[in-house]
Amino acid sequence: MALLASCSTPAPDLPSPSTSPTSARYGAPVVDAPRDVTAYAGQPCTLLSGSELQALGLRGPGVQRTSVDVQECSWPTAERGRLAMAVNADRDLLVDTYRSRVLPIFVPTTVEGMPAVRQRSRPDDNTCTVTTGLGPRQALETEWSGLTSRQTTDPCARAEEAIALVVRKLPPQR
Hints:
Helix content is about 20%, strand content about 30%. It is of the alpha+beta class.
């Protein structure tokens, strides 16, 4: 009997009863009213209109590039800085951000009702990255960088101002 038991096929790995959707999200909140950013995935420089760019103090057209397998657009600011927005239309970047926590300052927040995280290297840093969850497998990663030696405005607030403009015009996910 013991020999028979040792030769049997092992049972498949079953999920642990303690594993829940919440633990798989590493603490990242779920988006209650998902928005669809797929229309901008290949053309992130169209996320902001000319009047929105002007209102944010951005100069000139954006420059698009591929950054870590997603499309990103970068615009120069009037203060010699830049705003960069990357569109993630097939990745839950908010969960990845909660799991990795790359920067030492990690502050959960919301932008236009969407769960987000502010990340910075230090409190006086002129750069802030805000990752905003838009729904299942969709997110925006926005970075406001100031290049001046003295910080004159909160870079996180500036990034969130741009994110709010984008979120307001995104359609609901279907």
